[in-house]
Design goal:
By secondary structure, the chain is α/β, with parallel strands linked by helices. The protein is built from 13 helices and 13 strands. Bound molecules: uridine-diphosphate-N-acetylglucosamine (UD1). It is found in: Cell membrane.
């Protein structure tokens, strides 16, 4: 039987990879040859290695919205990336390219367009990232996590489908999670996930409040690469991780409240799992403000409360936590009303239809 071929791309941070992982696991590998194109050193390389599919790396450059000398060098890197991607695509001859955004996806999309390969893209944030802004004109179909996002893209090819969530994230076991963490069931579990790359100020504030926090909660602190603090390794009821892979499902099943960045994929996962959230979005100094917008929509719908990083202190942290814990059932009721659109099955069906 002749197999169909699909190329996935996207990277830079885990949020541009985990939805791809969800689809890769969903597509029948007996029907599909699946290939990934990513950067040489990005997190996508590490994450895709775990699913055992061919990975091609290309040259990639950062896309900036401001004037900088580095832009000239990066422009050459992007052009080189287009040539690299074109070479890979000509060799693979895929039926479709699927992009989850991030800098590395742009050369792949441009090369796919030159070779007339159908292109699907998915936008996770409320407003489009720069990569997807560029890619939209080349895309055959565009899908979004937020309903509000469709207005930023051409109407005739854009569909709101929700967030494609990895199935295994929804199938965790609370008992296994507690066992893995060595936590009991007498105190609630608070998980802190500072985005896939960690979050310095959130990490520092959690640590400075740790004595107070551990009287009320057992704490899972996902701090980002090289951010664990060895001097705190023996504190009872406090577990630190740089990044959590397959155990995340069980940890989240055991979690009562989460403190999170406003990364779209993470907050949609917490919504699907009905875990009340405090969202501390990346600030305008650190980002284009997409997480602030994501957080505002979630707060308005009653799924979470937003704490701006500028307001983050030990005191506000404790006050917000008490507030969310008190309102947790109310928040879960609001989350129950969220219409589950099953974006993952939708996308996989649309991909199958194109072959
Ligand atoms: C700094 C930056 O550019 N952040 C962006 C990035 O965030 P970031 O990469 O942090 O993305 P998200 O929060 O959207 O997704 C993170 C993903 O990694 C997973 N995960 C995370 C930690 C961990 O230990 N284990 C694990 O599996 C989460 O379950 C989730 O699936 O992409 C998001 C989606 O476009 C944007 O909203 C963010 O603004």
């Amino acid at each position: 039987m002749n197999k169909n071929r699909i190329v996935f791309t996207g990277g830079g941070s885990a949020g541009h990879v985990t939805p791809n992982l969800a689809m890769i696991r969903e597509l029948n590998q007996e029907e599909w040859d699946i290939v990934y194109i990513g950067s040489k050193k990005g997190i996508e390389k590490e994450l895709i290695e775990k699913v055992n599919i061919p990975y091609y790396s290309i040259s990639s450059g950062k896309l900036r919205r401001y004037i900088d000398f580095e832009n000239i060098i990066d422009l050459f890197r992007v052009l080189k990336g287009c040539m690299d991607a074109r070479k890979v695509l000509r060799k693979i001859k895929p039926n479709i390219v699927f992009s989850k955004g991030g800098f590395v996806s742009v050369p792949v999309i441009i090369a796919a367009k030159m070779l007339k390969i159908p292109i699907f893209i998915h936008e996770s944030d409320l407003t489009p990232g720069l990569a997807n802004k560029i890619s939209q004109r080349f895309a055959t179909r565009i899908f979004t996590s937020f309903e509000e996002t469709i207005k930023y893209f051409p109407k005739n090819k854009t569909t709101y489908i929700g967030s494609p969530i990895r199935r295994e994230i929804l199938q965790g076991s609370a008992a296994k999670g507690r066992k893995y963490l060595n936590f009991h069931s007498k105190l609630p579990i608070l998980t802190i996930m500072g985005g896939s790359l960690g979050a310095k100020k959130i990490n520092e504030t959690i640590r400075s409040a740790i004595e107070q926090l551990t009287t009320k909660y057992q704490i899972v602190h996902i701090c980002g690469k090289n951010n664990t603090d060895h001097s705190m390794a023996d504190i009872e009821g406090y577990k630190q991780f740089e990044y959590v892979h397959e155990e995340l499902a069980d940890i989240l099943a055991a979690t009562d409240i989460v403190i999170t960045r406003g990364g779209s994929n993470s907050i949609f996962e917490f919504l699907a799992l009905k875990i009340p959230m405090i969202i501390i979005p990346l600030t305008l100094q650190q980002s284009r403000g997409d997480q602030i917008l994501n957080a505002k929509v979630f707060e308005k719908k009653g799924y979470s409360i937003m704490l701006e990083e500028e307001e983050l202190t030990t005191k506000t942290l404790i006050t917000y936590l008490d507030n969310v814990y008190e309102k947790r059932h109310e928040m879960q009721m609001a989350m129950n009303l969220y219409p589950n659109k099953n974006a993952l099955s939708y996308l996989v069906n649309e991909i199958r239809n194109i072959r």
